Amino acid sequence: MYRRRLWAGRVITRLFSCLSTLTVGLTTVAVTAATVVCVPTARADFSPGWTAKIVRASWYGAEFAWRRTASGKRFDPHGLTGAHRTLPLGTQLRVTNLSNGRSVLVKITDRGPFVGRRELDLSYGAARQIGMVQVGVARVMIEPVLF
């Protein structure tokens, strides 16, 4: 009888020591995860030192109206959206037309462009705001907007 109590006491002691170790481990993981989540990070191919890129951009509009984009949402030609081949969907960019200095904030919702050496396709609404509808293709500066 005495041996059983002693053995049961050791088991309980060992169990509580394992639980406390597990609790400390989980607390460390939770604190680390919270730290990682709270730190603002750059997206995709934007390194922390990256500030701007100059690219050729075009625009697309009514011919793709209300079709589904790569993000799954329907394309609104008058919205402020864009298409890029490699940037993650949902990335926000400030696009500045270098010929007149006008800029607009766009959200990447689609893939493309697949014509020539262009790197960015803007919706009709975004292209109209920066004044590139008449020209069709323009040199623009893109800057990541971290949120």
3D structure, described in words:
This protein folds into 2 domains: 1-39; 53-144, Barwin-like endoglucanases (Beta Barrel). It is 29% helix and 25% strand. It has helices at 2-38, 124-129; strands at 53-60, 81-83, 92-97, 103-110, 120-123, 137-144. It has a 6-stranded mixed β-barrel. A hairpin with a 5-residue loop joins strand 3 (92-97) and strand 4 (103-110). The chain is globular.
Describe the SSE topology.
Layout: H1 2-38, E1 53-60, E2 81-83, E3 92-97, E4 103-110, E5 120-123, H2 124-129, E6 137-144
Parallel strand pairs: 1-5, 2-4
Antiparallel strand pairs: 1-6, 2-5, 3-4, 3-6
Give a short synopsis of this structure.
This protein is α/β, with parallel strands linked by helices and 147 residues long. Helix content is 29%, strand content 25%.
Number of domains: 2
CATH superfamily name of the largest domain?
RlpA-like domain
The H/E string reads: HEEEEEHE
Distance between the termini: 66 Å
Q: Main sheet?
A: 6 strands, mixed, barrel
CATH top level label of the largest domain:
Mainly Beta
CATH domain fold name of the largest domain: Barwin-like endoglucanases
Mean pLDDT over all positions? 77
CATH architecture of the largest domain: Beta Barrel
* Beta-strand proportion: 25-35%
The percentage helix is 25-40%
Radius of gyration: 27 Å
Q: Note the total helix count.
A: 2
Largest beta sheet: strand ordering: 1-5-2-4-3-6
**Could you tell me the number of beta strands?**
6
Low-confidence stretches: 22-44
Name the structural class: alpha/beta
